């Protein structure tokens, strides 16, 4: 029987023996004393004497090294234990191979590929022959304290008997055994660890939550689903492959960890046998090795990944229901806290609660009147009534829409170098409307994925499919239309899989997934749902077909009348063109283009019908030929006026890119390495085979896919959605890897809570407001979020939920908060994107001078951040930690760097908000304390403490003195921004209060949901 343990476990325990490196020096000069040390060791331990006396401890010197130092061979062939030789010169020491300088280092061997187990079968047979030869020698009794168990050194090694061994197998029995030379260290280590470490837990490891993550992180890269990169023809992600016999040995032998090559490899002390390989930079911890060993010894029971198991509603503990909270969420959380010996925090103050929940549900701070009303309401259910009022607010839909826009990669431009402007804001407004009307999440999904395929689809349902057309559009020169079209289809595929399944399907675009059971064929079968659209990949126009015309009946009638007025004007221009230019289109009658005032661009312009040209181009054409043909120029000018009226009308008529299926389905293929021009096998629309299949027997379409996502058999949609909503309110999901629920995902600490919320969400009819209300009315959400030393040490990220949520507000919410607190916020909803303040030159630099940013004026400057015009090539500079919206993004990025403070202290948005808020504070009272109280109530929903008031008022006095000495600085500060209001009679006082308000706007408490 083979036992393995690290050599390093022996060396510190050579009681009273000098380390070989401390005796004489490197090389053969110390071999004699090493022999003495061996003899001393044999005398020290009988078991070592019995085993070492018949073994060769020192490595045999390879023949190819003997030529370097002939005296080494003579010394090894005729050792003289007590003879001291002069140490070799240092230069000669360095010239020797390392195994000759250090006898404890094995001779160099040929490097073998990792885990080529079939290749090692010959080596395995050599071991068996070696055991047979040694059995011919007198057997050596095994010491009773070291009888083999499941694994040498395992805590249960002394209590678990080893399995019987067949006679004649060549392996020793449990009573009479011989040790391999390389396992001398294991015997001594077992003696040293016996005793105090024998009390291990008897609980069998859970495969899904403890074993599978270890295998996935450390083994699946080479022995997982990806067949093209699989080594040794071994799969550890499938039970039959992992447990199958392999020419005389087992990778995993249930119930016998000693005979399982997996356990031997992870405990090997040799680099060429160790798994994971040394060059993989992966190392298993002792705890992970122990888990794997106990799992194999307990029977190696297999299971599915936790998120792929059917969704059931866990039972809520009676203790949780009988608690003071009486809330299912609190029942699961407090049961978990009791298991980890943590106590829940007390409830937060009422002022903190109303600010927290108002920011979470509307993205805006509460007004002082709303705070006062809540503080005065001492009846039961006061907080629940606040939640209901906020859910009914129009601002709720705007707040919920922001996260969905980032998921849907919404933007107002196409991206890439040209970055042409598109019209997608009607879809954004539909999302806000859907959240406010509490459209059931299954219908919300179905409309966006397949609203156009519904019977008698309405305009609203067709508009919802613009979700799929939010992808970037390549308009660069040299583009390949088919390559772009494939990219658009695959973008839809990966966005859908991330948003509803929480799977990283994109990893299977070029090859089978490295970790999840998703093949490349599965990936392209899923993409086939979106491959039937007639989307064009040419990218020449900002709005590529198919499009939805959202014009009204009156607009369409007016356009028809405008076209009627254009017809005679166009006829007049055509008649003049025939008279003046009798040559073919694009060729002037005169031989000299200069004589007629033509240039190359004008010749091309004449080839187009006049009514199809824009007003600007017609005017340029008229001016270019004014001197050559006055009559023609006058006709073009009249046409220009009519076309300008038409262009204005067309600008008011909205067209949005939508989804539609082509009359003839386009075939889909697996693409070799993801290349558009290398199609392989044709595939039909389908879902990953490891998930429940589609119910429809007919050829599936997007409507079947949308219904499958919400089928009772699909375990992912509800879990993924609930986890994302939880992240909105707690800063991190119950599963931290919110974008990945595959095998590489984090195992949830609160698995029962996640499943209960998911099942409750499903059973409620996919009611989003019900889910939100369930989370925010729990005592877990209402906890105080102050961090104690104990929690800082044991749970700094609040994963156990022993305190309330506390994290930095997103930048868009910080801006909206400043506008709302100052009274500048304009609550107008919907419409095209607006242009707030932005430093000059940003667009120009990114577009090589072709685009110029012009900030809005008036109310458009103060609209909510949701309605800000979003250019993909360079996003709004007032926001930070926001994605570029080229791809689906479901996990927020939170940073805290000096650039943030530079923005919130100097951007005109915040400086203007501070000076306007200061003006309101000056009007609120005459005493500094009353004014300071007003500022704190508007921003923090509380009154300042005595210490805060003292510090701020002292700073106010310094600022006022400075501005009094420099009136021009005061006037410059008060002129920042577009808002003009009556200033106070004392500009220095107003400017000083503006600086105080700017300081409060930048407090950590203001920028944090605290």
UniProtKB/TrEMBL annotation:
Annotated Pfam families: PSCyt1 (PF07635), PSCyt2 (PF07583), PSD1 (PF07587)
Domain DUF1553, residue spans: 701-953
Compositional bias annotation for Basic residues: 61-98, 108-136
Domain Cytochrome C Planctomycete-type span(s) in chain numbering: 219-279
Top-rank taxon: Bacteria
Residues annotated as domain DUF1549: 328-533
Region called Disordered, residue ranges: 52-176
One Gene Ontology term of the molecular function aspect: heme binding
Signal peptide start-end: none
Listed name of the protein: DUF1553 domain-containing protein
Protein species of origin: Oleiharenicola lentus
């Amino acid at each position: 029987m083979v036992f393995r343990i690290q050599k390093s476990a022996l060396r510190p325990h050579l009681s009273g023996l000098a380390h070989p490196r401390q005796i004489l020096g490197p090389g053969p000069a110390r071999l004699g004393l090493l022999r003495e040390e061996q003899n001393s060791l044999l005398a020290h331990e009988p078991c070592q004497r019995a085993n070492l006396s018949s073994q060769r401890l020192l490595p045999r010197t390879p023949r190819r090294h003997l030529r370097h130092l002939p005296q080494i061979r003579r010394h090894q062939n005729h050792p003289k234990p007590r003879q001291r030789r002069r140490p070799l010169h240092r230069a000669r020491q360095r010239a020797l191979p390392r195994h000759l300088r250090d006898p404890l280092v094995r001779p160099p061997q040929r490097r073998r590929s990792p885990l080529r187990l079939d290749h090692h079968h010959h080596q395995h047979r050599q071991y068996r022959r070696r055991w047979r030869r040694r059995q011919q020698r007198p057997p050596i009794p095994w010491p009773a304290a070291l009888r083999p168990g499941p694994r040498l050194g395992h805590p249960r090694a002394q209590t678990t008997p080893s399995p019987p061994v067949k006679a004649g197998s060549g392996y020793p029995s449990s009573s009479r055994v011989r040790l391999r030379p390389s396992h001398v260290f294991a015997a001594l280590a077992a003696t040293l660890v016996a005793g105090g470490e024998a009390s291990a837990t008897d609980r069998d490891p859970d495969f899904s939550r403890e074993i599978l993550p270890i295998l996935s992180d450390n083994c699946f890269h080479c022995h997982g689903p990806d067949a093209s990169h699989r080594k040794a023809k071994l799969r550890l992600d499938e039970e039959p492959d992992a447990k199958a016999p392999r020419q005389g040995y087992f990778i995993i032998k249930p119930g016998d960890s000693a005979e399982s090559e997996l356990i031997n490899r992870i405990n090997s002390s040799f680099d060429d046998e160790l798994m994971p390989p040394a060059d993989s930079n992966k190392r298993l911890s002792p705890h992970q090795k122990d888990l794997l060993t106990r799992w194999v010894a307990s029977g190696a029971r297999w299971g599915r990944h936790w998120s792929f198991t059917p969704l059931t509603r866990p039972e809520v503990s009676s203790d949780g229901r009988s608690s003071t909270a009486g809330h299912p969420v609190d029942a699961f959380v407090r049961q978990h806290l009791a298991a980890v010996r943590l106590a829940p925090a007390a409830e937060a103050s009422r002022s903190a609660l109303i600010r927290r929940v108002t920011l979470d549900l509307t993205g805006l701070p509460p007004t002082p009147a709303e705070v006062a009303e809540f503080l005065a309401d001492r009846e039961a259910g006061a907080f629940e009534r606040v939640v209901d009022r906020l859910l009914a607010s129009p601002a709720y839909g705007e707040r919920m829409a922001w996260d969905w826009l980032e998921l849907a990669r919404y933007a107002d431009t196409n991206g890439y170098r040209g970055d042409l402007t598109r019209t997608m804001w009607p879809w954004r407004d539909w999302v806000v409307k859907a959240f406010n009307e509490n459209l059931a999440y299954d219908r919300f999904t179905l409309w966006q994925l397949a609203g156009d395929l519904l019977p008698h689809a309405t305009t609203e349902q067709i508009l919802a499919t613009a979700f799929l057309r939010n992808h970037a559009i390549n308009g660069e020169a040299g583009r390949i239309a088919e390559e772009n079209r494939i990219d658009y289809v695959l973008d839809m595929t990966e966005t859908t899989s991330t948003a509803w399944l929480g799977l990283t399907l994109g990893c299977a675009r070029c090859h089978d997934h490295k970790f999840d059971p998703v093949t490349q064929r599965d990936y392209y079968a899923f993409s086939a749902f979106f491959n039937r659209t007639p989307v064009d990949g040419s990218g020449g126009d900002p709005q590529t077909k198919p499009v939805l015309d959202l014009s009204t009946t009156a607009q369409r009638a007016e356009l028809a009348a405008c076209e009627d007025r254009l017809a005679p004007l166009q006829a007049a221009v055509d008649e003049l063109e025939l008279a003046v230019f009798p040559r073919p289109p694009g060729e002037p009658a005169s031989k000299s283009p200069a004589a007629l005032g033509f240039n190359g661009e004008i010749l091309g312009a004449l080839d187009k019908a006049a009514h199809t040209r824009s007003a600007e181009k017609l005017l340029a054409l008229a001016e270019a030929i004014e001197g050559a043909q006055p009559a023609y120029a006058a006709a073009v000018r009249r046409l220009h006026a009519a076309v300008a009226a038409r262009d204005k009308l067309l600008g008011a008529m909205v067209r949005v890119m939508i989804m539609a299926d082509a009359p003839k389905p386009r075939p889909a293929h697996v693409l070799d390495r993801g290349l558009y021009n290398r199609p392989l096998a044709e595939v039909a629309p389908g879902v990953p085979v490891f998930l429940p299949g589609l119910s429809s027997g007919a050829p599936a379409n997007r409507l079947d896919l949308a219904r499958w996502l919400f089928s009772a058999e699909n375990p992912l949609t509800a879990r993924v959605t609930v986890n994302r909503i939880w992240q909105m309110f707690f800063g991190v999901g119950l599963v931290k890897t919110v974008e990945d629920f595959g095998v590489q995902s984090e195992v949830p600490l609160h698995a029962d809570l996640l499943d209960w919320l998911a099942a409750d969400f499903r059973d409620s009819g996919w009611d989003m407001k019900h889910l939100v209300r369930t989370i925010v009315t729990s005592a877990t959400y209402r906890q105080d979020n102050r961090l104690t030393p104990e929690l800082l040490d044991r749970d700094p990220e609040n994963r156990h939920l022993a305190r309330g949520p506390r994290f930095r507000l997103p930048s868009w919410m910080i801006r909206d908060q400043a506008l709302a607190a100052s009274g500048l916020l304009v609550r107008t909803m919907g419409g095209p994107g607006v242009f707030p303040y932005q430093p000059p030159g940003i667009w120009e630099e990114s577009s090589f001078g072709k685009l110029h940013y012009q900030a809005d004026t008036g109310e458009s400057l103060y609209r909510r951040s949701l309605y800000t015009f979003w250019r993909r090539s360079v996003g709004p500079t007032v926001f930070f930690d926001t994605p570029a919206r080229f791809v689906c993004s479901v996990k927020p990025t939170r940073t805290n760097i000096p650039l943030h403070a530079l923005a919130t202290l100097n951007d005109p948005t915040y400086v203007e908000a501070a000076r306007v808020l200061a003006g309101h504070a000056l009007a609120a009272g005459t005493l500094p304390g009353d004014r300071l109280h007003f500022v704190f109530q508007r921003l923090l929903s509380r009154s300042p403490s005595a210490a805060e008031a003292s510090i701020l008022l002292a700073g106010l006095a310094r600022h006022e003195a400075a501005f009094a000495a420099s009136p021009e600085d005061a006037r410059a500060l008060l002129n920042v921004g577009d808002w003009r209001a009556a200033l106070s009679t004392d500009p220095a006082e107003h400017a000083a209060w503006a600086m105080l308000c700017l300081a409060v706007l930048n407090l950590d408490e203001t920028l944090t949901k605290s």
